[in-house]
Write a structure and sequence with these properties.
The chain is an alpha/beta fold. It has helices at 21-32, 46-54, 71-85, 108-136, 157-177, 198-202, 204-213, 226-233; strands spanning 12-16, 36-41, 59-63, 90-93, 139-144, 182-189, 244-247. Strands 3-2-1-4-5-6-7 form a 7-stranded parallel beta sheet, sandwiched between helices.
């Protein structure tokens, strides 16, 4: 039956940035589809862990600050996940950060921090988890891209650069790993009502201009992304790889 191909029972998913917002919704959505969860976050992620546990699935928490974590730190996190829950079948590189400043004045530290979280950690975790997936001939890696994987944005040069790079990295890894059973895709959320967009929503003029361009007529919610992550993590998406899928209420087609 077709619905059986969406079942994630007994799969293990590692989700970064899972304490709140999109990451929390993704983790809970995967658990509701049957997956056990490893929550990698710089904070405690207590609320997310409780929500996962309430579905009856196993949950393990790992603390890492992706701003400062080395490749070795992240490889060790993947090893810990496998030791605790037996595998990493699904990796969701969700954690992200954004710093706003005019390009001519953009601080070097802000550039470095954003690239460390949004790009370096994505590669290092994908590489570490990918090795295990390739060895057993199956796996799903899902990166979180952005509308700014397609556009330039305003006042966010480091974020835009990182999200363009995530889209490119997704395609590069997909090319190398598809024949060995590992798919690599990305989801590009549109304008979501999360912490990252709080400054935009607080600016009445900017918020109005954004809303006018969204054909769906509303800001997205964290729950709006759950379905596409479950799909990409499942056997239903076995022949989908290298895709960057917008979940944007129609923003890009306007």
């Amino acid at each position: 039956m077709i619905l059986d191909t969406f079942d994630l029972t007994d799969k293990v998913a590692l989700v970064t940035g899972s304490r709140r917002g999109l990451g929390q919704a993704i983790a809970v959505g995967l658990a509701e589809a049957g997956a056990d969860l490893v929550l990698l976050d710089r904070g405690d992620a207590d609320e997310t862990a409780a929500a996962v546990a309430a579905t009856g699935r196993r949950v393990h928490r790992i603390r890492r600050d992706l701003t400062t974590a080395t490749a070795e730190d992240l490889a060790a996190a993947v090893d810990e996940a496998i030791a605790e829950l037996g595998a990493v079948d699904i990796l969701v590189n969700n954690a992200g950060t954004i710093r706003r400043a005019p390009a001519a004045e953009h601080p070097v530290q802000d550039w470095d921090d954003v690239l460390a979280v949004n790009l370096d950690a994505v590669f290092h975790l994908s590489q570490a988890a990918g090795r295990h997936m390739l060895a057993r001939g199956s796996g799903r890696i899902i990166n979180v891209a952005s509308m700014l994987s397609f556009q330039g944005g305003i006042l966010v040069p480091s974020y835009t650069a990182s999200k363009h790079a995530v889209a490119g990295l997704t395609k590069a890894l997909a090319n190398e790993w598809a024949a060995q059973g590992v798919t690599v895709n990305a989801v590009a959320p549109g304008y979501m009502a999360t912490d990252n967009t709080a400054p935009l929503r607080a600016d009445a003029d900017r918020a109005a201009s954004i809303l006018q361009r969204i054909p769906a007529g509303r800001w997205g919610t964290a729950e709006d992304v759950q379905g596409v992550f479950v799909f990409l993590a499942s056997d239903a998406a076995a022949y989908v790889t290298g895709a960057v899928i917008p979940v944007d209420g129609g923003w890009l087609v306007r």
